[in-house]
Amino acid sequence: MKSAVIITGAAGGIGQALCKQFASADYYVIASDFVEKHSLANIDAWISIDLDRFCRESDYRHQMVCQLREAAKDYVITTLVNNAAVQIVKSTESLEVDDWSATLNVNLLAPFLLTQAFLSDLEANTGSVVNISSIHATQTKPGFTAYATSKAALNGLSKSLAVELGGRIRT
After folding, report:
1. At 27, phi and psi to the nearest 5?
2. With bands split at pLDDT 50, 70 and 90, how would you rate the model's confidence at 137?
3. DSSP states along 70-112
4. Looking at residue 136, what DSSP letter applies?
5. Is-contact 82 130, C-beta < 8 A?
6. 28 a catalytic residue
7. pLDDT attached to residue 14
8. Active site residue 147
């Protein structure tokens, strides 16, 4: 049976490249992004999803997980690629609580919640979670405080998941 991959942040440059690579590897590609509809090549299904809202509202989260599952049809979900990211560039003095919330929700909490939501699928198929980080996690520059912090935390999450879930799924 053909494997399915869920790719968040599919409308951006890295997301489009990921869709292309997974399609060429014969995956059923379920692409998602904040934009309403995108005419990307190399995708089989498109789900518009607001990952900040996904983190804040449990009913919306449940609805989106159901839509992603339905989009997989009869394919087995073997891979989750957490590529979506928010990059708010502001000085330390200018960063607001809402900036931090949006950044941490999309860049850190959403990858965790999506992993949690699809864990049984991934375990059943010895699947993989791929979290896309950034050079800013270790080497950053002024104005990237929230983004760099979120990516450093994503690296920590990836390591923790590898330790806890190793043997069950690949991270």
Report:
1. -85, 155
2. confident
3. HHTTTSEEEEEEE---------TTT--HHHHHHHHIIIIIHHH
4. G
5. yes
6. no
7. 95
8. yes
Catalytic residue, from 27, 28, 75, 147: name it: 147
Sheet holding 3-7, edge to edge: 45-48, 28-33, 3-7, 76-82, 128-131
Q: Say what the pLDDT of residue 39 is.
A: 72
pLDDT on residue 167:
84
Q: Which of 133, 134, 150, 158 is catalytic?
A: 133
Beta pairing, strands 76-82 & 128-131: parallel
Instruction: Count Cβ atoms within 10 A of the Cβ of residue 77 and give its class: 0-12 exposed, 13-18 middle, 19 or more buried.
Output: buried
> Is 159 in the active site?
no
pLDDT grade, residue 36 (50/70/90)?
confident
Of 29, 40, 117, 41, the closest CA to residue 73 belongs to 29
Which listed residue (28, 75, 134, 151) is catalytic? 151
Instruction: Tell me the pLDDT tens digit for each residue of 2-24.
Output: 899 999 999 999 999 999 999 99
